[in-house]
Structures are given as structure tokens and as C-alpha cells.
Amino acid sequence: MAMITNHEDLYKRGGAGDISSIKASSKITQKSAQSKLREKIITNKRFKVESLELAEVVLSEVEEKEKVENSIKKLKHGRNVEALTTLYRSFARDWAHAETFIKCEGLPLLQGCFLSTDAELLHAAAWCAVNLSAGQSKVVKKVMCLSPTLIQFLSGSDRVMQELCAWALANLAGDSQRNKQILLEQGCVTSMVTLVATKYYMDFEDLLKSVLFALVNLAKDETYACVRCMQESSIYSHIVTLLTDISANCDLCYEIGWLLNCLYSRQETLSEYYNQLSPVLHLIVNKLSQFMQIENKSQREKVLLPYVHCVGNIIGQKLDLAVVLCQEVQFYTWILTCLQCSDLYIQSEVLWLVNNFMVEPSCRVLIIIQANILSAIFNLCHSSDVDIALQSLHLVQMMTKMSTFILTYLVHQGLVGLLILLVTHHDHRILQTTLDLLVHLVSVIPQVNGDVQLLSFVLCCCT
What we know:
- There is one protein chain.
- The protein has 29 helices and no strands.
- By secondary structure, the chain is mainly α.
- Among the domains are: about 1-45 and about 250-370, no CATH class; about 385-463.
């Protein structure tokens, strides 16, 4: 699933004055790195396989082609579950088999299978649609002819069929902006929101997972039309219900997090649905506190990512929202936890979140006076990941620009020792930023417990 590709998701507040100049030199590089990292985690399309063993079966190109062609021949002689099973397995193993299927006129045969009343055959046909739609764009363009049929099955009573059709539609939506627009016009968005509104999803987790996946891809619509349709279909009330009812240990929380991000990181949402943002922030903070209780470290860090990302985007849109967030007592606890976690993606996201939070003047001191948070940021300046270290150092630089009093406080908290260790750093960006900070310290603080003499010595050594 994905983080935003067609509609770039932006940290919208750049700050003012010195803060802007501090961020300008590294913002483009940092955002590019973040985007690449997120793309490694989330994709716009997903194959469906029965097991990793079946997915990893390796056959020769000739054998695979023969399997596909033989399956098509079987379909020509009648609707055949075995043939469809062979096909969806082949599609999952290699995109090229989907192209072979299209070239051999297999798509009309697959379309005919959806007219069957046999549940097993319908499920196999829908599974084929899932894996075909997860392929290359030139194949997906052909598969779009199935979208009206797939949407029709969303309103049926077969939960497995609904899940598979929602999954296929999610893949179609994830392929292009054009597909999103077509699906919107065909009523796909409204049908998906209707499925979220039903309570039986509590017993059919896989169904809701596919529906949320589809909504995320649809919400990446560049024109905002899909998101507006979701809002008009009362997606907000359903989001509130999901965040309230679903356990923090449930896998669905991950999908909900990305949907929240797609819905509330848009400038249009700020102008049209601003009244939703404060309640959503409150719900997210409560959910994040629940995630902190998850014992499994990998599960905890996975589910944290979209929510931290979402909060960073929300408060980056309007300074008032940062003020709302600072009133949440639990906010500082999970900020510290995220800074101390081992996941680089989360560290990067939470550093951006703190950056956005500190753009609001009344919020800056609230971060600095949290001794544990300040210590964690200092520690990340030594991170083996250069981008994380640079982000952290830029936060420190932002802090030193606030006032002489704050600068003196930072010196007493160990700023000088931190900078001395960084003057030998191998990365020229970190070294340059460190030297800039040292020069600033020497010029601003005439005397802090003899530290000026030490700083002067360091500067002489560096030159």
C-alpha cells in the first residue's frame, strides 16, 4: 500500500526567519530520502498467493508459457477451476505470464467466468483478477474492463468474493490517476465506504483489509475528488468507529493509519474539513499510546509508522494544530519511544514531526525542556545513518537559534561535548553544520563556565 506517489505528501510548514534558512539546504535531500524509504515499505499493488512456497516455485519460461496456454485452452472448453488456479499462480510468479494470457485472448474467457453461479469458480476468477491487476500498466489497462463486474460483487453477500473484488479494485486504483477517476465514476468509492460502514467486518477482517487498501489507493487521487466523495459518504464517522473499536493488536490498524494519512495530509482537507482535524489528532494520540503496549517489537514499530507520519503531516499544515497536540499528555511519551526505537523509518518520521511541532514558537520550549527527548535527539546526532544524524543535528541547530537563554541551557545539557565529537565526522554536511554551530556558540555566548576557550581551541584545530 502506499504512501503517496501521485499526490506528493508534504510537510507543509516551513517555518519562518532563521528556521526556514536552517531547513532550506537539507529539506529536498531529506524528503527525497524519506520518499524512497517509504516506497520500500508500501506499494500500490499486491499479489495474492496461497503460500510463499507456491509463489517461489520456479519453472522454465517454456514450461510456464505452456501452462498458461493449456489453461486457456481448458477455459475455452468450459469454466474450469483448476485452470484458473494454475493461472493466478502463474501471474503471481511473473508478470510476463499475464501478458501471455492477454495476448492469447484469455481475458474474455475470464470475464465469462464471472457469470457463473458456482462460488468456487467465482473465487478463482476473482483471484485471477487480483493478480492480473497487480501486474504492469499495459496489462492493467486491459483488465479495467472487469471493473464494473468487480464493483457489482461488492454489494453481494459472498464475503470472500467481496474481499477478492475489493483487492482487485485496489490494484486497479493503484495503477494510475485515470483508473481512479474511472472507478469514482463507476461508484467504486461509495461502495467501498458502504462496506466499511457495515458491522460484519469485525468477523471478516480480510474483507475490511482489502477495502481499506482500496480506499488508500483511491484517496491518492490528484484531484481530491475521491477523498471528497469519501467525506460525503461519511468516512469520518466510520474512521472514528474503527479507531475506537479495533484493538491495537489488530493488523487492520496499519491499513487504517495509511488511510488517515491519505485523508488528512491534504491541503483541501484543511480548508474543507478543518473541524475534523483536532478530534482525529486526539484519537491518533490515544491509539499511539495503545500501540506502545504491544509486546512484539516488529509489530509495534510497523504499526507506528503511518500514524507518526500522519501526525507530522497534520501539524505541518497549520500551527494551531501543533498547539492542540501539545496539550496531549501522552504525546511526549510516544515521541520519546519513537526516537529511541531501532526502526530508521520511524526515527526519520518522528524527527520531521518534531521539526513541524517546533515551528510553532510556543511549542519549541516544550520539546527542549523534556530532558529525555532532548537527550534522545542528541544521541541520534551520532546515528550510523547519516540522514538521521543530519536531521537530528538540524533540530539542535533550530534550538540554538531561539534565544541566548535556551542556548546556555543546551550547553549545560551537553551541547559542547556533542559538537566536539562531531567535528571529526566523515560526512561533509554534518561537519559543516557542526562548525556552523560552533561558530554560533563562540559568537553568542561570551562566557559559559570556560567553555569558550574550549570552543576556540576546537575551531583552531578544525582550521
